[in-house]
Structures are given as C-alpha cells and as structure tokens.
Amino acid sequence: MKKILFTAFLLSATLAVFSQDDNNSSSYNTAVGVKVYPGAITVKHFIKDNIALEGIGYFDNGFWLTGLYEIHTDIKSVEGLKWYIGPGAHLGSNNQYNNTAGNAMVLGIDGIIGLDYKIKNVPLNVSFDWQPSFTLLSNSFFRGYGGLAIRYAF
Asked: Which long-range contacts (CB under 8 A, 24 or more apart) does 82-85 make?
C-alpha cells in the first residue's frame, strides 16, 4: 500500500507541475489518484461533459486492471457533486481465488454506481462508489466492494 501511495503522490506532483488548468472550477477533465479498498491507482478522464472513462489498477493478491464507462449526472443542489453509473470489465491475475498453485488469469464484468465531488478552488476530487464484479474466467466468483477515491484533478 505504501508503494501505491508513493507512486500516486509522485504522479500527482508531476501532473501538478505540468497542468495548466484553472482549479477554481467545480468541474475537471482528468483526475489521478488512489482508491482505498482494495488499494488501487485510479485515473478518470471525461470524454464528454457527462461521460467519463476510468481505469483502476488493483494490487490485491495479484494485479487487476479494470476499465469503466461512467455516465455522470449533476446533483443540482450541490455545486461540483455528481452521481454516476456504468458498466465495465476487468482483466488480471489472482492467486486468492485459484484452487491451484500460482496465479490464475481472471477476466470478468463490472458495474459501478457512486458519487463524485470536485472541490471548488482546490485541485481535489473525491468519489465514493460501489463496484460489483463478476469474474467469468478462472474460478467464477462475485465480489462487490465500495471504494473511496482521492484524486488530483486537472
């Protein structure tokens, strides 16, 4: 977990140096940071005003890479707050759910629903979500987990 936090810090610091965005806004185009539980690096990028792509790299008994397509909708009563929902997929290797020795390749489908908040006048984005995941390749299994993401927004 220390390696993930250190890597995210270095990446955020580097992006801060090169970013030209005005962070006085309550919206953002791209955000990079960490996701707490199960421990991940996350990158979210808006391809349209209400459509974002999110990539999540997990280091949890192996390595998982998850891609999500998220549809965002403003919550008009709170500036900078949106709710989102969307589908996705994951690919990786895992040794926790494998009946044999070593890592097993995993492939599956994901969904996500959550809240996303960009703090005005601060280059910080926070999100809280629930992400159900069903692995199809290897041993089939379901896991649903919630996550708190903290990202540098630019």
From this structure: 82/115, 82/116, 82/117, 83/113, 83/114, 83/115, 83/116, 84/52, 84/112, 84/113, 84/114, 84/115, 84/116, 84/129, 85/111, 85/112, 85/113, 85/114
Over residues 100-154, the pLDDT tens digits come to 556 778 899 999 999 999 999 999 999 999 999 998 887 778 888 888 999 999 8
What are the structure tokens assigned to 64, written together?
Answer: 């998982």
CB 71 within 8 A of CB 85: yes
Q: Which domain holds residue 91?
A: 2-153
Peptide bond into 87 cis (omega under 30): no
Q: How many domains does the chain have?
A: 1
Q: Coil, helix or strand for 66?
A: strand
Give the three-state DSSP class for 10: helix
CA distance 59 to 74: 32
What is the spatial distance between Cα 97 and Cα 104, in angstroms, rounded to a whole number?
8
For the chain, the C-alpha Rg in angstroms (whole number) is: 16
The backbone torsions φ and ψ at residue 4, rounded to the nearest 5 degrees and listed phi first, read -65, -50
